[in-house]
Amino acid sequence: MATLAWPLAAWSAGPVQTAPFAIAGSTAPAAAAAGPAFSMAGATPAAATNAGAERDLNQWLLRLHNASSRRAYVGTFVVMSAAGGMYSSRIWHVCDGDLQMERVDALTGPPRSTLRRNDQVITFLPDARVARSEKRESLGLFPNLKRAGDPALAALYQAQSTGLDRVAGFDADVVQIQPKDGLRYGYRIWSEKKSGLAIKIQTLDVDGKVLEQAAFSELDLDANVKMDKLAQMMNNTSGYRVEHAELVKTTPQQEGWGLKSPVAGFQSVSCYQRSNGAAPVAGPGAALAPTLQWTFSDGLATVSLFVEPYGRQPHPQDEVLVSMGATQTLARRWSGDWWLTLVGEVPLATLKLFAQNLERRK
């Protein structure tokens, strides 16, 4: 679930960093602890509360956003895909005004611990004794309302309260956010009744089928999380080789890229040059230009577009399609000299529109 993510999940993503729920695989005990929260079915119908019934789309989103940016909590977080994949992590999250910190430990798969202080992120890989440090502009809040109150959201989605349910022992309002076209997915969200925190989310395809869901199997909303303790952990890189990702803010226009026409509802939100330390290679387009990362959002869903010289690394195929739960990836050779990769929690058709509309302007 790329943008509909708790901050905790967003920082344990893989190298592409647009699929927050690509956490290390979970264990059988974690799945057992999840219990009914991890049924791929929707909520049991119940009478909606008056407050829930009266909220419009932006009111729901603002409530969810505020809860995710203001609550301190500790919990076990589990992600399941319809294909059977399961992943889990342990999260500590704390806030103090505009300052947020969190720690995310993968519970299965290779050991990994990710700590974040606002946009500063460091991931510890103990097996390799490597710590990867970088700056990320997006805080990964659920939802990340850069366009809160924007009437454009109401043109893309509609919200409907569908009842009450319980997740991880908490009463929750259930709201369904439905897209108004086929370019984006829908969501079913369980919002903890008192705080508004999203404690379970399902991503739904255009036919309403659950592609992926994420939920807390255990959650403590009264946890005494110490910010100074997390800061000490984040700063303690002794015994680790620290790798710094080089991100340089830029614009698509400055780098010579643009879209022939916009993809409906999506706006450009950031653009970076990402240095991957690749050695220069011969061949067309194999100059030392770093990878371009251009990110778009419709207010909920996010698409990341990466462009790099084709000759930088071998590509056994001219096009690659990968589907992991709700996250789709399209990679292809573009205009001969470039390798284009698109990643997003959107239908594949949406990624293809971005690829078709991309143009080189210099």
UniProtKB/TrEMBL annotation:
MucB/RseB C-terminal domain residues: 253-358
MucB/RseB N-terminal domain boundaries: 57-234
Secretion signal span: 1-18
Keywords: Periplasm, Signal
CDD domains in the cross-refs: RseB
One Pfam family in the UniProt entry: MucB_RseB
Principal localisation: periplasm
Gene3D superfamilies linked: Lipoprotein localisation LolA/LolB/LppX, MucB/RseB, C-terminal domain
Domain of life: Bacteria
Family membership: Belongs to the RseB family.
PANTHER family recorded: PTHR38782, SIGMA-E FACTOR REGULATORY PROTEIN RSEB
Name under which the protein is recorded: MucB/RseB C-terminal domain-containing protein
Organism: Curvibacter microcysteis
